[in-house]
Amino acid sequence: MTKVMEKNHTQPVQMHTEERNPGLPFNTKYFDAININRSAIERRVSTLGGRRSVKKEFQAAWLLKAISMIDLTTLAGDDTRGNVMRLCEKAKNPVRADIILSLGMQDANLTTGAVCVYHNLIPFAKDALKGTSIPIAAVSTGFPAGKISLEDKITEIKKSVAAGAKEIDIVISRDLVLESKWKELYDEIKLCRAACGDAHMKTILATGEIPTYTKVAKASWVAMMAGSDFIKTSTGKESVNATLAVSLVMIRCIRDYYELTGVKVGYKPAGGIQKAKQALDYLILLKEELGNDWLTPELFRFGASSLLGDIERQLEHFVTGRYSAGFRHPMA
Description:
By secondary structure, the chain is α/β, with parallel strands linked by helices. The protein has 12 helices and 8 strands. Helix 10 (244-261) links the parallel strand 6 (230-232) and strand 7. Helix 8 crosses helix 9 and helix 10 packs parallel to helix 11 (276-290). The two termini are 26 Å apart.
């Protein structure tokens, strides 16, 4: 029996214990001088793929950690109660029992970081997750385009929280970023944060629709100043979603915000992260830029639906030495 628990030092944790981000009064002095060098950012992330990756039991330990930081997501137009119930069962038991036993992780209570669904499906997720500490994350504020009134955004957030969501993923009004209306963006996010109450708020920037890294950085700062608990790349519905380059920009903003305030803001790349190797690249980048403190479900999440299947497949390969067919690792 292979045991990897010793190398997976941090056990999965779903209860938030990090200090909430109280935000800062709006002041452009924090981001006025930002000017991101695109070529430097892209050179930095290009080095990740050329390195030797972690191997064997070390890779298995990192992949188990990655599972604990997945927001297991279904955001399809044909979602039903059955889809959500199966997704929640997978969140509770993300890896086949025989693989978990072979890894010596049967007592680790491994789960995904959260389950992410549309507002109307929260009651089904709540019922399926009863008796667990897995939080429900709800996409809100007119997801994915955000083209509804601010009043309707606030109403939708409050309804999701009342229905049982412990985390709210909001979408910003992209036009405010495109037109550099930073004070209006700050006010919008701050009102959304107030509507969330005790629920943690992840602010989606939709970076694939923001034309420059400089604007991505400024939007990240405004979101954190307004009290966001997490900043998130994408809805998963844009033509370009999470990338390592845009992640580096946002992660460094998080680092600068922490150095200024002492408050740790979380990070969530979402969309297009489907392979275990991709997940490792993101975790390595996070570790190198922010350190071990951010390698926890409290401060880092993957927004993903198919990633878990590939991670499970890689773990089976570690245990057996063989790759199995994808259908042996269904999403749910």
